[in-house]
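Components:
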Amino acid sequence: MSWCGQVLYSGTAKGEVLRLDAPISFWGGISPENAEVILEKHPQRGVKITDKILIVPEPIGSSSSAAILLELLYSKNAPKGLILGTNKDAILPISVLVAEQMGWATIPIIAMENPSFKSGQELEIKSDGTILLCKS
Amino acid sequence: MVEITQEEKAILNSEFGTTGDKTALSIVVKAAEMLGAKRLVKITSSHIDGCLYHGDSGVLFCESLAKNGAKTKVPTTTNVGAVNFLKTNQARLSSEKLQMARRLMDAHVNMGCTPSWTCAPYQIGARPKKGEQVAWGESNAVAFANTVLGARTNRYGDFLDIACAVSGRAPYYGLHCSKNRHAEILLDVTGLPEKVKEEDTFFPVLGSLIGRLSSDSICAVSGINWIVSEDQLKALCAAAASTGAVGLVHIIGITPEATDLRHVFNTQRPREIISIDMDMMKGAFHKLSQTKQAGSIDCVALGSPHFSISECEQLLEMSDEKKFKVPVYVCTNRHTAQQLKTQDIYSRLERIGVVFIIDTCVVVTPILPGSGGIMMTNSAKFAHYSAGNTGYRPIFGSLSDCVKSAQKGSATLNYGPWK
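Structure:
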């Protein structure tokens, strides 16, 4: 199976899916220190996003979220790739542009409507925005 | 592809401007590409969210911009930092983190930002006019600028905000364009009982409901046909922007682009019409509290967004100048604090147990003692973020509930119509 998303930041990645099942703002929702979901009552509370292909169907809230993702990129605690359900604001993708300017590692960011991937699946993101399901 | 002017091309090719200018502009252009913008738009002001310390990465980036000669090209205000400059020991940060937080704030001032350190720049004079193109960060400020002032900005996150301020430009997309500012969903509050509309908590509760119902669509609210204060609109915007990706809400008959229904929906029919009923409002109200425990509270936190002069006056009046049993943290900015001092309100509030938090707030940097407790607040934004950021579980209530609770040292809520 394969899908094609809109490339917000090009790159390649392969890894295990972690899907954030409820809307989340990275600021207040993810710890910049250990990459854990810290939002009260969030279904993924306590789960680390590091090295995952992170699916965020509904990114919301604070515009400080870019700083959290940049910190995770800088400290090498970032997810391997990010699939967002919307591209209406550049809050998360901007961190990758800054990381690029600073010469730090970057990750691919893809936008697609209603990404249906589930936690535990294995995905590969290609530089043209193709997403392959390696293991369901 | 993004269309680039001659001037922009010269900056990107290092023929004009500094290296810092080039870095900033190339970030803005790449962001424009990501967002599908066809060109950039010149802006008249900026509000920077990126001056709050979240880790060393942001400091290193901003210092590198400043070192490379980046200077803001438009009047630029700063959002809260992690440090109260006047009482630097207030934030319980390690000395290394404190130093990094200050370095980040300094880098912004070095780039030409006005050191306002507030999440409510619109209450200290940064008030772009209707139709002005600006690039603002901080979700509540963005929602306020679009909704209440009728200025045009998208939700600029950290780093893109300073990149825009240094470039004097923003990607021309989203809420910068007239065609994207029309409402899609109509929320009608006409059917709600009058009693609830008079509640102090009506606007933050309605705001958090708007955030949940709208997802990232633009909502218009109809049925508000009384005089609404700017502080109430501030509370509504902050609440909506914390529960949802809300950048603009139209309130028919109140906000500048919402003269009438026809205009707001661009003569189209709303995609969805939702009659807000009391069950929905009650649900939103109770979601703002994260503890059922009636009993002792550890503190009251006010001022997200930053408390205004009139909110401080209300607090003083409601307190009857009787002492509080628990600390009442009032978060505000240095500009407002100065005004409060000249009017003697500052010292009178301090005398009854108010702890002023200036330049920052209790939810963005560790100020509250210990690792958790119960916080009472009238701010939907504090209620939304406090548990995750501070470990303090919120109890949400009106300002008058907060005052009574602080005086008793235990949660005293007059639920009224929320029962």
